[in-house]
Design brief:
Layout: E1 13-20, H1 37-42, E2 45-54, H2 55-68, E3 73-80, H3 87-94, E4 99-103, E5 112-116, E6 119-125, H4 126-132, E7 137-138, E8 150-156, H5 167-178, E9 183-190, H6 197-204, E10 211-214, E11 216-221, H7 241-259, E12 293-303, H8 304-320, E13 329-335, E14 344-354, E15 357-369
Antiparallel strand pairs: 1-15, 2-12, 2-13, 3-9, 3-10, 4-5, 4-9, 5-6, 6-8, 7-8, 11-12, 13-14, 14-15
Length: 375
């Protein structure tokens, strides 16, 4: 046997939560402080969102849901950091905390800037940190060899003292003009309810020629696949935590194979066991009838509020169709890399039926931290 163990994999973690989906009411805000919506809120900006469901659910729900769901859009612009602190854009968007922004660059290597809820975070090397004159703190390197020391500077621009003419603010302006003055490519997402927010942001940044882009949408029909028993009823109340963990890990692996379009889950798959010994989980029990799957994928830049709207609309539409009440649905998202060590890489939320609650579903959520490879 060959040992393919890698040291970086020891830092990868997955936090699993199991519970009941809260009751949702149309035209009301989702319960952001209840699971699994807390998981959605923790990842403010993601680059890929995928929804996986059986084809019969897709046929019954997607056409009506599509008309209610706003298309995710974002702005791409090339500008220096000082542009965030000038003119109408600073007063209207930055001070109100209604935009999410991230610059290009690799965390832990390049200078990376992010703006979230009015807080500007600057990740810079030691040389620029010392020349900027701004207060910050060292960034964890994870014990990487030959990694140069880096610092993070966090500035709350929503504070009343963050105004032109104030000494602390002018120090930040000086650092942006004289030290952190390189032009970078930014992505910008408005996390506000106004439909005209992106157009207003484009007008405020007009001299930098910003572009409004639509997230790429892809719809994939999978061949008929073997479906594992997706229900918490498969785990008796007397089961140990280890049994529950093993079940969740097997389901997570199966969902990952669906997302990768792997032929291993197809009912017609034939492969030499020397190459792959994968089998659908719980093959010894009675598996559900094989069915065709559909996945919907968006790629670009999306705020957590849009993903919450997507998930909420889907659950509400599912409850309107009695033939879809006992159907499962999986929502996955991949977040942008913001830190070099133990980055919050994304999550998967599986909505599954429960016999004890015929009008409601339970959920299993996986929060992935510290992946060695990130898109």
């Amino acid at each position: 046997m060959l040992d393919f163990a890698e040291g970086a994999s020891a830092h990868e973690k997955s936090y699993i939560a199991v519970g009941q989906l809260p009751e949702l009411v149309e035209d009301r805000r989702p319960p952001y402080r209840k699971a699994p919506f807390t998981t959605l809120s923790r990842h403010a900006l993601v680059h890929t969102t995928e929804l996986i469901m059986p084809r019969e659910v897709y046929n019954a729900i997607w056409s009506s849901m599509q008309d209610k769901l706003a298309k995710p859009r974002y702005i791409q612009v090339i500008m220096p950091l000082i542009a965030l602190l000038e003119g109408d854009f600073f007063n209207t968007f930055v001070k109100s905390g209604c935009v999410l922004m991230q610059s290009e660059g690799r965390s832990g290597v390049d200078d990376v800037f992010t703006l979230h809820n009015g807080t500007l975070t600057l990740q810079v090397g030691k040389d620029k940190y010392e020349r900027s004159g701004l207060a910050g703190k060292p960034i964890r390197s994870g014990g990487r060899k030959h990694a140069k020391e880096r610092f993070a500077i966090e500035i709350d621009l929503c504070q009343p003292s963050m105004l032109h003419g104030k000494r602390a603010f002018e120090r930040i302006v000086w650092a942006c003009r004289n030290v952190l003055n390189a032009s970078l490519t930014w992505i910008l997402v408005c996390d506000a309810s106004s439909q005209n927010s992106l157009d207003q942001a484009v007008a405020a940044l007009a001299k930098y020629h910003p572009r409004i882009l639509d997230c790429r949408f892809e719809e994939t029909s999978h061949p008929v696949a073997q479906i594992p028993p997706l229900s918490l009823d498969e785990i008796p109340p007397s089961s140990s935590p280890r049994d529950l963990e093993e079940y969740c890990n097997e389901v997570s692996e199966w969902l990952a194979l669906v997302s990768l379009r792997s032929p291993r889950i197809s009912v017609d798959d034939v492969i030499d066991p020397y190459l792959s010994r994968y089998a659908v989980p719980h093959a010894e029990s009675t598996l559900p009838q094989p069915t065709a799957l559909v996945s919907l994928r968006w790629q670009g830049a999306m705020a957590s509020r849009w993903i919450t709207q997507l998930f909420t609309l889907f659950i509400l539409e599912q409850r309107l169709h009695t033939d879809c009440l006992n159907a499962w649905t999986a929502l996955s998202a991949s977040a942008f890399r913001r830190v070099a060590v133990e980055n919050a890489d994304g999550y998967t939320i599986l909505s599954i039926p429960e016999k004890a609650r015929p009008m409601g579903n339970s959920f299993i959520s996986w929060d992935f931290i510290g992946a060695s490879l990130c898109t």
